[in-house]
Every structure is written in C-alpha cells, then in structure tokens.
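ENTRY TYPE: paired fold submission
RECORD: A
CONTENT: sequence, then structure tokens
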Amino acid sequence: MTSSSKTKLSNAKNKSGQRTNPLTNLRRFDRSLPMSLLKAHEAVLRTFIPHLRAHDLSTQQWRVMRALAEVDALDVSELADACSLLRPSVSRIVQNLEGRGIIGRRPCERDSRRSLVTITDKGLNVIAQIAPESESRYDYIESRFGAKNLTQLYELLHELVDALDDPSAESADPL
C-alpha cells in the first residue's frame, strides 16, 4: 500500500463528514487465524527450545533430524517440504548437521544431479538422548491443555491443512 493510499484510508470520511475506520470490514486482530496460530506455535516452542539449546540444536535442525529419522533418505527439496522450511534454509541446516556428523549425504542412484540426505548413527543417538525430555515436554503440554483437547487440536489442524491444500476444492482467492 502506498503512502498516498494510506492517507486516503486514514482521511476517508462518510457522508456526514465524520472520519471512517477502514478496519470496519476486517475481523478483529485477536480473531486473526494467522496470529492465533503464530502465538500457539510460539507458546509450544517455548517449552522445547531450552532443551534443544542444551543440545546445541535449533528447532529447525531438530525438525530436519526428526523427519530423517522416520525415512530412509530424502533429497533437500523433499526435506524442505516435509519440514515446512525453505530450501535455502534446509541447505544450510544440512551443511551444519553434516559437518557435525549428525546427518550424511549420498548420491541418488536414479539421478546423479541429486543427493539424498540420511541421518547417521550419531544423529539417531542424539535423538535417543533428546527423546525422553521431548516426550516429557509433550506430557507437560497435555497436562496443561488436556489429552482430549490435544487430540482434537491435532485432528482440526490436519483437517485445516487438508482443506486448504486440496487442489480439487474451488479456490476462493480473496485477493
């Protein structure tokens, strides 16, 4: 929005000359879905970050390790998609974790231009060290929020993602 557009919005007046609020057709900020999801994300991460930092890991590095622990191998693009991270960020994370011996790369047999990323035995040992504390953090969240609420939240979040990612659904692009 240009500064002249902002000025027009802030100087908008109704027929009786009173200033109008351009936000009257916008939902309240405390009912903003992106903000609510962001606040929930940050609240959850606050329970995990101190423990991960004690192991010299970021939450993004932990995501990469966890994703790789459940598969044989992924290329960087697949890994970025699995972790909901940008490809350049995953490339940096892979370099860091590879340098620490936590993950490794191997050539892709089907496509020599690609390399596959795998977790090493050292990486699996790090996960094994972190897992009990991580699970205790989940137990804490469940004790505060409730097992039933947490189960329902997982289901609702998966439904929301499925609904918004469904390519067959009609697009109602508000922009």
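RECORD: B
CONTENT: sequence, then structure tokens
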Amino acid sequence: MLPKLKEAKYQGDYRVWLKFADGVEGEVDLEKELWGEVFQPLRDKARFAELSVNEDIDTLVWPNGADFAPEFLYQQLCPNYTLKPTLKDGAI
C-alpha cells in the first residue's frame, strides 16, 4: 500500500515537516532533489514555500506541477521502507 501524506508545513530553506496517515512524521530537506526542468524553479525559496498536499494523490505538490512520489517522501523519514507489491487473490 502506498503511504498517504496528510500534512506538510514549510520549515524554511528547502525543509518540510511531513505527517503521513499512519502517524509517521518528521522533517525532510529536499534541497538535493531540486534538479531538472520541473524542480529547478523551486530553488527560488519563495516558490518552494508554495508547497501543498494534494489530497487526490496524497503527496506534496507545487503550483508549477512539480510533485514527489509519496513513497519517496516516506522513505526519507523511514530509510528501511520498501514498497511491496500487493499479491492478487490466488497468486503464489
């Protein structure tokens, strides 16, 4: 099952406090992740601060269309987390 991000608060610079539906919470620094066409504009701290939680996809998003996969964010707080495939009924 995918982690579901429920809350996010800008903490300054490129840091964000996150809280997931299962109660896992903490602060992550995303500065090293801000590269490439979509993320480069977020190096402007004012634009980075425009972050929000999209409740349809349960993750962190920005007005320019940038987002991080919820499992990536969760793994920043729980390094041993791995996404496990769900088996369909009758699978071995």
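NOTES ON RECORD B: The helical segments are 45-48, 70-77. The chain has a mean pLDDT of 92.
STATUS: closed
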